[in-house]
Amino acid sequence: MIVARRPGHLRGELRINEAMARHTSWRVGGPADRWYRPADLDDLVLFLSGLRADEPLFWLGLGSNILVRDGGIRGTVIAYAGVLDTLHGLSGYRARVGAGVSCAKLSRFCAEHDLAGGEFLAGIPGALGGALAMNAGAWGDDTWSHVEQVTTVDRRGCLHVHTRGDYEVGYRHVQGSREGWFVEAVLAFAPGDGEESRRRVKDLLSRRNRTQPIGQPSCGSVFRNPEGDHAARLIELAGLKGMQVGGAMISERHANFIINTGNARAADMEALMIRVQTEIQSRFGVTLVPEVRIVGETLNEVAS
């Protein structure tokens, strides 16, 4: 266990009843009781050490791959994106990366430093912390294939270092230490050529732009791919492209994307997800598991 420095005064930003629609890529979500953006890791440690032991905590990166219900989040949201921003190279084609670094920025860093294997990160619309939590991946590669060690922080503000072997990792699945939340990782890559990496990223992003609804509010892929198949293929085969509930619509460009057409509520998103799951189960006998994380309370729960 590592104890970080605890300065005397909080330096981060605290907001009360903060609308989560401002912080999610779907642009929906009710208010969080408290929203805290720490100044840095030391400030985060101090903030956590001062909380009640039973305070509900929710960690928020760039707000992709998450659906916050319309009733909002009880407790405190820790907004770490762009704050836990350590990013520097280590010997042996490795890098030390803070959880708040965007995956796109990390991909560029790899190319600039001739580290091969980070190209896939350009296709992940989130920060490293979220990518670690769900083993995010794209184009045949995933985050934990590169992890050597991680640092977590527990709710008391104490830091812990773990190796890759301390976790059970699979497709969009990570299970291991419950001592806290990811704040940093050491990632390993291979020697490469920066120019070649940049060409590969350009090609991959061009492919993404042709096949995904870039520029429209979405959370990325909504459902995990069933073993041996693709969720988008099943949804398209069922004729569900363009299906709409309220302001939520299945993208005409990519069937595993649900977009906010402009006035959607979180309830619309969730209802459309359930309709898709029901239809795919009925037609093909396949259970689609959400890749997006659903959190918070419904408006009915808040009213009661």
- Strand order in the sheet with the most strands: 1-13-12-16-8-7
Number of strands: 21
| Percent of residues in helices | 10-25%
**How would a crystallographer describe the biggest sheet?**
6 strands, antiparallel
Query: Into which percentage range does the β-strand content fall?
Result: 25-35%
Helix and strand sequence: EEEHEEEEEHEHEEEEEEEEHHEEEHEH
Q: Taking all residues together, what is the mean pLDDT?
A: 93
Q: How large is the count of helical segments?
A: 7
The radius of gyration is 20 Å
**Which class of secondary structure composition applies to the elements?**
alpha+beta
Low-confidence stretches: none
Distance between the termini: 42 Å
General shape:
globular
